Automatic annotation (TrEMBL):
InterPro entries: D-2-hydroxyacid_DH (IPR050857), D-isomer_2_OHA_DH_cat_dom (IPR006139), D-isomer_DH_CS (IPR029753), D-isomer_DH_CS1 (IPR029752), D-isomer_DH_NAD-bd (IPR006140), NAD(P)-bd_dom_sf (IPR036291). GO terms for molecular function: NAD binding; oxidoreductase activity, acting on the CH-OH group of donors, NAD or NADP as acceptor. Belongs to the D-isomer specific 2-hydroxyacid dehydrogenase family. It holds the Pfam family 2-Hacid_dh_C. The keyword Amino-acid biosynthesis applies. The lineage of its organism: Bacteria, Pseudomonadati, Pseudomonadota, Alphaproteobacteria, Hyphomicrobiales. Residues 121-295 form the D-isomer specific 2-hydroxyacid dehydrogenase NAD-binding domain. Residues 34-322 form the D-isomer specific 2-hydroxyacid dehydrogenase catalytic domain. This is D-2-hydroxyacid dehydrogenase family protein. It comes from the Bacteria.
Length: 333
């Protein structure tokens, strides 16, 4: 059945205030949809529940706002959800299904290139202290206080996770004349060669790589994969890059390794808590480059996200949802 009652749509976590410009939302307004875009994180579960209670439909920007069962169950009007991207482990899909709430996802655009390019940018910045040098010059300084940079040519890059993103990193590294090794729990020598790397053990990768970059999916197997013992095995002065998910690395151990200069530098796009709280210890360190989870934040990707989101909304209003990732929810509402 087409949806005919007035619909309230919440577009979440539109931090850059761009969502309303990436699709022709007047098509939805013409159908009586009231659209509210939130340009800030909604905060705690209680705060999010209070804000979202009136809404019939919610558009999630990937994992920025977690949607556990405890929150979904407190949204009495929720009938439809749109997820930008293919999946989000922070969304309790089973809870949506139990409530009869269909969830439609979107295409991802060139997100693999976007994320891997950002990871390489972080790697270069951390190796050559570009951000620190920029701040120094702006403050009237020159070379004073800067540590020596690391030339990448001839160095070893260790890639944890040689999927599509990791393989792109291997390709970039070859262009910089780096030696590339890789490890993951299911990686074979053949797959490693196909991805442009040599398979080694995790211990060898940690102890011999000059730069390590993480491209693993967060799961029970990878959560805390890099803790204090693993960081201690890394070469003194090595560079660590994480553009995957924060909890893969033990944050407290990472901070200590950076503080003591056992790690020379790090480039981070992801954190245990996002947005990163003001005054977080990572923000006090001068040997870490921090970006606010920008891996997928690019024009062409957002155009795909919001174009598909509008299509999903209009299809749901017509009673014919598309791109539904929990079809078993259909007919329960």
């Amino acid at each position: 059945m087409p949806v005919t009652d007035p619909v309230k749509l919440a577009i979440l976590d539109d931090y850059q205030k761009l969502a309303l410009g990436y699709a022709d939302w007047d098509k939805a307004r013409a159908r009586g949809v009231e659209i509210t875009a939130f340009d800030h994180h909604l905060g705690t579960l209680d705060q999010a529940a209070a804000v979202l209670a009136p809404f019939d439909a919610v558009l999630l920007m990937r994992e920025r706002q977690a949607m556990p069962k405890a929150l979904i169950d407190r949204l009495p009007n929720l009938k439809f959800m749109i997820l930008t991207g293919a999946r989000a482990p922070s969304l309790d899909l089973a809870a949506c299904t139990a409530r009869g709430i269909p969830v439609s996802n979107t295409g991802t655009g060139p997100s693999q290139s976007s994320t891997s390019e950002l990871a390489w940018t972080l790697l270069m910045d951390a190796a050559r202290h570009v951000t620190r040098a920029d701040r120094l010059v702006r403050a009237g300084g020159w070379h004073g206080g800067l540590e020596m940079g690391t030339i990448l040519a001839g160095r070893r890059l260790g890639i944890l996770g040689l999927g599509k993103l990791g393989a792109k990193m291997a390709h970039y590294a070859k262009a910089f004349d780096m030696e590339v090794v890789a490890w993951s729990q299911n990686l074979t020598p053949e797959k490693a060669r196909e991805g442009g790397a040599t398979l080694v053990s995790k211990d060898e990768l940690l102890s011999t790589s000059d730069v390590i970059t993480i491209h693993l999916v967060l799961s029970d197997r990878t959560r805390g994969l890099i803790g204090a013992p693993e960081l201690a095995r890394m070469k003194k002065g090595a560079v660590l890059v994480n553009s995957s998910r924060g909890p893969i690395v033990n944050e407290a151990a990472l901070i200590e390794a950076l503080r003591t200069r056992h790690l020379g530098a790090a480039g981070l796009d992801v954190y245990d808590i996002e947005p990163l709280p003001p005054g977080h210890p990572l923000t006090t360190l001068d040997n870490v480059v921090l970006t606010p989870h920008l891996g997928y934040v690019a024009d062409s990707i957002f155009r795909t996200f919001y174009r598909d989101s509008l299509e999903n909304l209009l299809a749901w209003l017509d009673g014919k949802p598309i791109r539904v990732i929990n079809p078993e929810a259909m007919g329960k509402g």
